[in-house]
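This follows on from our talk about sequence and fold. Please put the record directly below this note.
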Amino acid sequence: MRCSCLLLGLLPLGAPAQGPRPPAFDVVPLGVRGGLDEGNLSAYLVAPAGSTAYVCLDAGSLRTGLGKAVADKVFAVDADAVLKTYIKAYLISHAHLDHVAGLLLNAPDDAPKTIYGLPSCLAILQNDYFNWRAWPNFGPAGAPPALGKYHLQALAPGPEIALPETALRLRTFPLSHARPYESAAFLLRSHEDYLLYLGDTGADELEQSHQLQALWQAVGPLVRAGQLRAIFIETSYANEQPEKLLFGHLTPARLMQELAALGQVAGPGALRAVPVVITHRKPPAANEAAIARQLVAANSLGLRLIYPVQGQRLQF
């Protein structure tokens, strides 16, 4: 794996060495924070390694992240060309503004494409945003005139589907984000390799759900087989945040609890080979720093923890 990022929690001494594998996925973070910083909100471009046919996982910030990626020479074309031609589709985990603001604001200049999401997410996009009151109706239905720039494709949990214009395939899993509000996890496949991205989620215990456990049961065998190349998962608040004020998010303690549950499914030590990318840390800087310290202190699993940087390419 090569990346321009902060890397913590390396394999402990004595862990079996693994030979380098060629990367399976290119990832370009266009936004990495979970609020407040309007120009740096959740959005990740993902493509098979060497391809320019990306999907965008959430779209809180687009233009600022694209500008930084172009300045960092991640792309050989300008930000407008990436927006219109490289991004083939949007996969939206849920419709909170910090996950869709970039999509909405850039819609007038975007090219026609598909937005994928759970039915509840797409209903909010169409009815609450694309309604000529909050924003022009770039959707296919709703308040006239429907401009139809975006096709809204509902996702059903379970079956794998192809993502047209890309070499990626997708499985979708529901998550609980402040029950009963729904979010989603996306499991992308390129050939026999996988990348897992989770939208906002609370811990099963607090959400009174089994959504994460069902996800772990599904991906545990991929971890065990060495096919899961990375996990993108949120940690929004430090441990000091009262649990009644988490609003469907994770803390370092709750993240490690959930990853331990995944480790039990995957088998002893298997998770050490899977980079865990920490998303959605909320400013201020003191909260972000506290999250990093607490994750390191709690990292008894020997996980490779990565903190993505806006505009800097990751490869897995």
